[in-house]
Amino acid sequence: MGLQVAKHNKRNQRLHQHGCISDAVVMTGMVSMELVYIPLAAMVIFMILILVLFKKASPVSRTIQTRVDRVNRIVRESVVGVRVIRAFDNTSYEQKRSDDTFVAYADNVIHLNRIFAMFNPMVWAIMGITMVAVVWFGGYLVLQATTQIGSIMAVMQYTVIILMFLMMSAMVIVMVPRMIACLERISEVLDTAPEIADDREAVASPSVKGSKLIVFNDVSFSYQGAEEPVLRNLSFCCEAGKTTAIIGGTGSGKSTIAALMLRLYDIQEGQILVAGNDIRRMTQHDLRESISYVPQKAFLFSGTIAENLRTGKPDATDADLRQAVKIAQAEAFITTLEAGYQSPVAQGGSNFSGGQKQRLCIARALVKKAPIYIFDDSFSALDYQTDAALRSELKLAMKDACLIVVAQRISSIMDADQIIVLDNGSIAGIGRHEELLRDCSLYREIADSQVKREG
Ligand SMILES: Nc1ncnc2c1ncn2[C@@H]1O[C@H](COP(=O)(O)OP(=O)(O)OP(=O)(O)O)[C@@H](O)[C@H]1O
Ligand SMILES: [Mg+2]
């Protein structure tokens, strides 16, 4: 008997200190075996309610997540594209698009809160009914003289503790569907394996030497999910000390070739060799270290001009920067800036003109000093004079480098040692300007159209 009382007291103490639900149930049973069924029944009903809530709230929570994505996208587009929106006088359309997105999001959140709002009174109703049941049956048992009033009071206390536990856990559980939706999104991002990974047996630091610096062997490539290949059976080679130009209509695959050289995508067929090494067997670091790239869309980081120029070579000296800037024909405009090389660059380089940005991107690539340079339509925003001056200085300064120049203007590439004419992903002709004028009808067409336009 003494042992039982000690156990009872210990359990009671633990219950009040830590609040353990099983203790509360056991204590109720110890006080009255007849009344324990009431909180147990309440527990079952409560759990069913939580299950229903979980099932109803889960899909809504998930939709909320996709709506939040959409809201973010629309807000970003409206902010970044504000000039285009104003220029096209599209404000009312954009406003409607934003409104629709926000309303859809708000509808979802209201729906979810309605479900929770319904849940709340039900919880209180269950609590009330349970208490009434305890008092009712307890009173009946007292009248039958099978239990005492003190026991009813104790059972009521324990029932309150049990139901409070359940209510608290319900509060946490209703957060679970949203939590699961968020976790799924996070793990989706974390689990995404990079498509391009270094080969385990990649050749560490292969020397980028030899005359044939880039070789394409029967290369075909399609973007993921695309039906048609973008490039078909390309074979060509770019040599050190020579300029290879790539010309072709928009969407013919010129930028894709540049991206493949940098191994931003893996090819499906054929082989790309850089200095005799298959690029899939090289480490990405070594490959990209050997290539200096000027992207088609001039992109600058926020910071200063000098910081931007040092992107590819952080230890470049001031003299290196000056030399690159001189070749890139950017000297004149940088010297007119009050802070010169320390002038601030706004986000996305928005405080510079298109041509200035392009010249800074070219200078950035030149500072890096690599054996291979890729200029993806990098002279397009330059006037003819600047374009010509830049090309002649480039040729002089980069005598031993392999230059790959993607261009739309024939005048930018007619001096190239080799011109590749692309037609819808296939090579329509390879040769020098005069050879192509003679043998390649597509090149002739491009040349004729440009001569007519300029004439
Ligand atoms: N990331 C991508 N995902 C799917 N398709 C793409 C992607 N980038 C380009 N394409 C498609 O590949 C084709 C070639 O694009 P690419 O950018 O190489 O053309 P381009 O010759 O550089 O054109 P431009 O002269 O306009 O710069 C296009 O039809 C384009 O729609
Ligand atoms: Mg392009």
Task: Describe this structure as you would to a colleague.
The protein contains 17 helices and twelve strands. By secondary structure, it is α/β, with parallel strands linked by helices. The protein folds into two domains: 2-189, ABC transporter transmembrane region fold (Up-down Bundle), CATH 1.20.1560.10; 212-454, P-loop containing nucleotide triphosphate hydrolases (Rossmann fold, 3-Layer(aba) Sandwich). The strands form three sheets. A six-stranded mixed beta sheet has the order 6-9-10-3-11-12, sandwiched between helices. A four-stranded antiparallel beta sheet has the order 2-1-4-5, covered by helices on one side. The longest helix has 53 residues, at 91-143. The chain binds adenosine-5'-triphosphate and magnesium ion. Adenosine-5'-triphosphate binds at residues 223, 226, 230, 248, 250-256, 296, 377.
Give a short summary of the structure:
The protein has 455 residues and is an alpha/beta fold. The chain is 57% helix and 14% strand.
